[in-house]
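FAQ: What does the model actually see?

It sees only this:
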Amino acid sequence: MKAVLIFSGGMDSTTLLYDLIHEGCEVSAITFDYRQKHHKEIRCAEKICKKLRVPHKIIDVSVLNDLAPSSLTRAQWDVPEGNYAEEMMKQTVVPNRNMVFLSLAASYAIGIGSKDLFYAAHAGDHAIYPDCRPAFVSAMATALHLCDWNDVTLHAPYLMISKGDIVKKGLTLNVDYAETWSCYKGEDRPCGKCGACTERREAFGLAGVADPLEHRA
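And it is asked to produce this:
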C-alpha cells in the first residue's frame, strides 16, 4: 500500500508511522507548519523521518495562525495547564485545523498516486477536539470519496483506542518516544503541566512504563 500520513512528530502519529512501516506500507509523511508555539514537534518529525528514510514534506500553512485563534497560535494567550477534561482546555483547539490538514494531505496523496490517507486521531481526543471524533472522520471520509476523480480512502486506525493503548502498541514496534514531542509550550523541555504533557504522562502510566523523554529531560 502506498500511504500518506499526516505526521506531527508527536507520540500518536509517530506510533502510526512505525505501525504502517511494520505493515509493509510505502509511507510518505506530510507535516504542517502553522507557526504553532510547539514548533519543536516539526524538528522532531524531520529527524524521525530521516532516521526511518521516509519521504517527508513540510507545508507552510502559516495563514492558519492568522485565521484560527487558539492558545497555540496567539502569543498573548497563555497555554492552559491541567487535564483535557477541563473547560478551559478548549483554548487549545485550533479551529478547523484537521479539515485543513486532511484536505491538503488529500491533494498530496492524489498527486503522488496514493489512495490511502492516514491520521492518528484517538479516543482521548474525542472530548475536546471535534475534528477527531468518529462523526467528523466519517464525514471527511465521504468528502474524500467525492472530491476528485481519484478516490482517496481516509484511515484513522486509532480512533477508538486510548493513548495508553497507543503507547503499548508503540513499545511492541520499538518506537523511541524520546524522539517525539508533545508539550504545547515553546520551550526547550516539556513543561509537564499543559494538557498535552498531562495526557502524555497519563498514557505512559496506563502503559506501565516511564516516559523516556522525561528521563532524558
